[in-house]
Structure formats: C-alpha cells, structure tokens
Amino acid sequence: MKNYLKLLNFEINRFSKLYFLMLAIIFSVQLISVFYHIFSYLAFVKMETKGGRMTPEQFLAEHFPFGLSNVFYTRGFLIPILIGVVGLILYVFFIWYRDWMARNTFIYRLLMLPTSRMNIFYAKLSAIMLFVLTTVGIQLIFLVLYKKIIEWFIPVVYRDDLSITMAVVTSPYLNTIVPAHLSSFFVAYGLGLAAVIVVFTAILFERSFQLVGILYGLLYAVFSFVLFSLPLVVQLLMFETLYLYADEMFILMTAIVIGIIVVSLLTSRYLLNHKVSV
Amino acid sequence: MIEVKNVKKSYGRKAVLRDISFTAKKGEITCLIGVNGVGKTTILNAIMGLTPIDGGEILIDGKKLTKETYEKVAYIPDSITMLPSMRIKDAFAFMNDFYTSWNEKRANELLTFFKLNLEDKINSLSKGNKMKVNLLLGLALDADFILMDEPFSGIDVFSREQITKVFTSHLIEDRGVIITTHDIQEIEHLIDQAVILDNGIILKSFYPEKIREEEGKSIIDVLREVIDR
Amino acid sequence: MKLNIDNRSPVYLQLIEYFKEQIASGKLAMGEEIPSRRELARTLNINPNTVQRAYREMEEMGLIYTDGNMPSKVTRDETVIKKVREELVQDALEHFVSTIKTLQIPLEDVYPLLEKTYREKNGDKADGGEAK
C-alpha cells in the first residue's frame, strides 16, 4: 500500500507539468470564448436597440436572453473539452509507453522495484482516474466562474439565469461528463475505469508479445466490448422471447463489467509478472 | 550463488540463447565475454526477470526470483534507469523510498569516489558520468550480487579508470559480480571466472588463473582457440 | 610499485616472485609492512582474490607473517631470506647457463664476458651496486 501511494505520487508528479499546460490551454480558450460571446451579444443588443429602435422587451421577443447555454454549444467551449478528452485518452497510452521509449529506460527501474508489479499498474490507473476527475471538477468550478462573468457583464434584462445544474443537464455533452445523478455518475465512471483497465491489458499484451501482441491486444479489447454489449444485442434480436426489465439488465451488465475488470486485472498481473519484457 | 541452467530464449524465429548454463559465486567476479552478437544483455535481463525465458531455469541462492530478489541483486544496465529530468538527489530519494537495502552512506561515499554532485541533473551529464550514476545506484544497494552490463562501453578513458577501481575497492567486497564485456583486455586480471559466449551457446567457462597455471594460456589465447574451432 | 604482468602465467605466482625479489634485494626490509590485499589489488588493477592467494602462499612459505588484524609484514627470519636469495640466484644461474649452453659457448669464454657485463651494468647505476 505504501509503495502504491509512492508510485501514485510519482506518476502524478511526472505528468503534472504537461497536465497543467493542458488545463491552461483548455480553460484559457474557454474563457476567451466566453468573453467573445458576451461582447458580441452586447454589441448585437446595442445595435438592435440603438436610438430606441427596439425596447428590451421587443428584442427579447425575437431573440434569446443570454445565459450559460449560449456558451455551451460554441466551438470555443467544446473544442477545449475535446482537447481534454483526447489528451487524457492519449495519456492512457503514454503513461505506459514513455517508460519504454525514453532514452533512459525507466521501465528497468520500475520492474526492478522490490514491490508487486501490480502496484505500478494500479498507480498508473489511479493517476489517470484522478486526472480525469480533477479535470471535470475544475470544469465545474469554471462553469461557476462563467456564470459569474455573465452576471457581471450582461444586464439583468437580457440575462437567462439558468442554474448550473439545469445548464449541465440540458447539454448532452456536459451531461456525459457530469451526470446529474449519483448512480449515473458511477455508471459513467465505472465504465470509463473498465475501459482504461481493458486498454491497459491490451497495452501489456503488446509489450509482452510485440507485433503479435498488437493482435492479441486488439482481440482482447474487441472481445471485451462484444461481451459487454452482448445483453443489449440479444435483447434487440430476441425481443419477443427474452425480455429483461431495466434493473435486471442493469444487474446483468454490471456483473459483466465486473467480470471484465477481474479478468483484465488477473491477465495484467500474469503478463506483468511473467511475460512483459524491457 | 546465481545458477543459470539450460536457459533458452528466442525473439521470433531468432534464437538468442540456445542452451546457457553457468554459475556465478558470491565473492567472485564472473565475466560474460561475447565476441560478437547479442545474448549477454539478454542473460542479465533474464536473471533479473526483465525478459521471460523460453526454457531452463534461473536460481538465485537456490530460489526463483521474487520481488524481494530486487533488494539482494542489483542490476546496472548499460543505460541509466532514472528519468532524465531527475537530479542525482532525486534519484537517491527514489531509491531510498523503495529499497530497504539502499545504503545512503555508501551512496554518498560513491558520490565522492566518482566526483559527482547531488545537484547534477542526469540528462546534463556526459556518457561516462551517466554510467557512473548508474553504477552508483546499483552499488549503493546492500546487495549480495551485482550485475553490470558493459560498464566500459563507449566512455572516456578516465571514467574507465575510475570504474575499474571499483572492482578492487571495498565497494565490491565479498559480493558476487557478473559483468559482461566484448573487450576482455580491459579487465583481464580483475576477473575470477570467464564465460565465453557465442551465438547463444557457452563455448567455455573457466578460471583464467587456473588456465594460466595449468596450460600457460591467456584469456585471449583461449578465446582464439574456442572461436576458431 | 610497478609490475608488468604476463598474461600467460598465473598472476599470483608473478606476485610471489615480485615479493621474493624485493625481499631478497632488501628493497623490502625485514619486518617491513607490506600493502594490504585491497591496496595492492587497487594499485595493480588485479583481482583481490588473486592477491589474497599470493599472500596466503607467502605466509605458508614463511615469507610474510600477520599478527591478528595487523597489516602483514616481511619475515624477520634471516634463514628464510637467505634461502630466497639462494633460490633466486639459482634460478637466474640456471636460466643463464641454459641459454649459454644452447649457444654452445665454452665456460672459459663466458667468464670474462660475464665480468665485463657485470661491471658495465654496475657503472650505469653505481648506487644500485652499493645496495647489494
């Protein structure tokens, strides 16, 4: 446990510089975009209502008031989120491969630590989950900030005081990252965790068997995905004869996901202990 | 005692180790001499559990490798095993964090011995100095065995001299050493046992001092004989 | 100390030979401390086990002795030293004679040459001769 924590701390430190750079890019682009949309809205309002051509009521009859949802669907808001998602997905691979690829091969040291090699696995896994959760958390804090900024700049008549919860729930993108209910939160992040574990196992297949390993890894990932979606497919095909209630389905799929996680962890442990090569 | 018994290893269709057996004893310096080709590094990697073997067995003091083995057997590969961005002191802290056999006192002694500085950043060091850091990290463990992969390869003559001095110093003391080299002349009189390796098999393993006494041959003479055959 | 090591003969014997010469010539005095096994290994870049073996054999021959944890010292036994000298002289003579014999030079012709060469050598390093 102590060694796991030390390794986790080490992984976090190693990625922190790049991670903060990524956060800086994401949120500065979002901030700039928020200001851009606020000022263009204000300019638009000013133009339309110039010289009393329109009263605010008339304007609002034709146009939407300005609120959080006005920034959610803009490119300047979504592209940074996409950068974050892609960045963290790449990190899932990078977190393993950099130990082999660097000029100074750190993997020698990692594999020679007098501790269970699974600690390395768990440390890398936890690091990724922590970075994901932190990113989402910071995004939420920034949402509060954006709301404040909107309140500062947009006069109350033109403002749509949508709460953050409502704004998030009504946006399909944000809803995925920040589920409204605790249960859907666990489903989303549970699936994410399982996916990362499966990808880690695939990476270890490649690291153990090189070229053939890529094939093994891909097959493993595809197999896991098929297994996971099997109940849904069966349900779809045999709708007449076999019908599961929603909670039965939920239990079945949870069991499958847990099964996939357990098998992946055991496979990874075997590969790390007996097959992996520097 | 490290026993390597009938070890086999292939990469794809290419057999790198075909049938390797030798024993390295504590308190002795065993040298794996390979005139050409690969295999030496693979043997060390296999002993350390860093690459799986296809056949045979490796025993360390009679037991198979476990995670505790890494406290007792130190490996010094030919490239440094720490992150390039680390300073020497960070590498020390890392070792101290994970290894109970890390001997900080000896580490500092080695630092002086090699004329290195705690504040030195690893990727700013010369190749010779990097090798010294590497050696230092291995030697500072209170390990019974030390494996070194080509410690003299591609470094300057003064670094070589310093590294050679390690073998005769108390830093090795009664530990067992396995060292690989393709250039035996450098350490001809430093070693106890020579193991000649070529094309994945052991051509001969012998005690040079004994061969000198009984047959009046130098290591190079023996090398010439077995390679020509 | 300087020692040119021959790669084809056992290093431990070369060490013993070296010490015999040093002791016989008086360069190492009776009771003088000799370097520790590690010191010597370090100066000559040779395996400490080899030095250890040489020291052990020299101890068995009575050339050196060790009191407890003290550094080893050259023997104070004059008969041993005398024996070593005789042995070295005998070795040198045998070597010399066998060379002369292969060249088939009569002994009478060798004497004057021997004397001449000896004088010349002594002339080169006068103080070297004094020490003898």
How much of the sequence lies in strands of chain C comes to under 5%
- Beta content of chain B comes to 25-35%
Number of helices of chain B: 8
**Which overall shape of chain C is indicated by the principal axes computed on the Cα atoms?**
elongated
Low-confidence stretches of chain B: none
| SSE class of chain C | mainly alpha
Q: Architecture of the largest domain in chain C, according to CATH?
A: Orthogonal Bundle
What's the SSE pattern of chain B?
A: EEEHEHEHHHEHEEEHH
- Report the sheet with the most strands of chain C, covering strand number, pairing sense and barrel closure: 2 strands, antiparallel
Task: Give a topology summary.
The complex is a heterotrimer of chains A (278), B (229) and C (132).
Chain A lengths: L1 H47 L7 H7 L5 H5 L2 H27 L4 H6 L5 H37 L10 H7 L1 H6 L4 H56 L8 H30 L3
Helix pairs in contact in A: 1-4, 1-6, 4-6, 9-10
Chain B lengths: L1 E10 L2 E11 L4 E6 L5 H8 L7 E6 L8 H4 E4 L11 H11 L5 H10 L13 H13 L5 E5 L7 H12 L7 E6 L11 E6 L2 E6 L1 H8 L3 H10 L1
Chain C lengths: L10 H14 L12 H8 L3 H14 L2 E2 L7 E2 L3 H26 L3 H18 L1 H5 L2
Antiparallel strand pairs in C: 1-2
Helix pairs in contact in C: 1-3, 1-4, 2-3
